[in-house]
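Posting this for the archive.
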Amino acid sequence: MREDGIVVVKEKKHCLFGCLFRLVAFAVAVYGTATALAKIMRRLSLRLEEDNEGSESKRFFSCLTTREICLEEEEASYLDVTAVAACVEVDLSEAILPEESFVKVHSLGGKVVIKVPAMTRVNLEGKGVLCGFSNMVPAYEDESLPVIYVDAESIGACLKIKIVEE
């Protein structure tokens, strides 16, 4: 303070290098945390899916990844698919489908695509918030065809059911 009672205030200059350094450090911390979380979730999904071998009821979990699930020559009477910020594709074209199959889908901020073989009826029931459900399978009238009941619960996600392109 000067003798005449005037206070001199100096502006603090922001260093561009310091701001950039903090921004890069934050980005590295977020990336490292997301990578560690993805590894933990992958281990959890592998542990969860150990019981799928030889079982008619199968559970699949995916978090922060892209994943393709292909059931070849396996019976698929009940599937439980959970996707958290993930893109999951379930291919049932080579699966052994009983007269009635059930697929339960839980998705949060991701995309789930279910591919079914031709000449299969699909019944889709879905509820969700900020999501979209799309059943691209024609409505077949033949009651002798196998039917897949899809029950979906989604928040900010997309579910698409389509016939496998040959």
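Residues 16-163 form one domain. The helical segments are 16-48.
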